[in-house]
Write the structure tokens for this entry.
Amino acid sequence: MNLSDEYRPVACALHERLEFAVLKHQQLQVRYLDPARQEAQAIVLPLDVYTANSAEWLKMQHVDGRMETLRLDALLSFVELV
């Protein structure tokens, strides 16, 4: 996802599910487009959902400890893990 691409807002229900996952410290299995626009999949811990630069973002930590910030319109799908 190129930062110069116009941001496409995500559905409120999706945004709310992400916020709840942050509050509950609930791991997610996510599918998303990486910066090279390649589909990626990972298990992450969501740390924050916020707005900046006219877009919404998800700050997440991968299971290997690596941190990543994802623009929400690059998120293809996610599942809350138990």
